[in-house]
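Allow me, if you will, to draw on your knowledge of protein folds for a short while. I have a record of one protein: its chain in single-letter code and its fold written as discrete structure tokens. Kindly check, if you would, that the fold set down in the tokens agrees with what the sequence suggests. Thank you for your consideration; the sequence and its tokens are set out here:
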Amino acid sequence: MLSECVRTQVMHGPRVDERSPRQRFPMRSISILSFLALTLQSGAASASPPTQGTAAPTRKCELRLSSWCIADGASIITRRLADDGVHDRTWSLEGRFRPESKLFVLEPNGCKTGYADELKLLHLEGGVAWNGRTMNKATVRIKSDGSCDLQILFAPSSGDPMEWALSSGLALIWGCRDQACTPFPMSDIRPLLIDGGVHADRSGGFFRP
């Protein structure tokens, strides 16, 4: 097929354009303009910014309570009724493969209604004996009327070689501002717990910001 095509061109000779130069030049100008337009369009397309990748999924509440929630990320979450006469429930959070580094949250009855409207560290107590453990205990207010003061217990750094509770577990505790749980993340007060915890561990006393 290719040989026939070549032979035909040789027999008939090159094609001759019988139009006058005046007729040929406008077509050439139009062709050049069209080529330039296509080049500019392709250049503009290649200069456009690359499409951004899909945003990483946001963390959500795994256990939603009224004033606060536990976000997804803990390996094990347990709930027990409190027996101290002050709190209603005790929650414990545990990280994957780190069973000895637990975070405990003591929840008063006032947290069952309403939404959080602040995040305030009231005090931090070190060297607290609790269920056979020596813990640091932070009291955190998330409702300004004082009805929902969460007590958060975590091991001092010297007694927590796996270190999950304060570095990762604390970030899973949120005060909920609204029905959608726009969060007050407890991780916002972590610097106070770390700095205050050093003092509390040595003295066994209180730290008040």
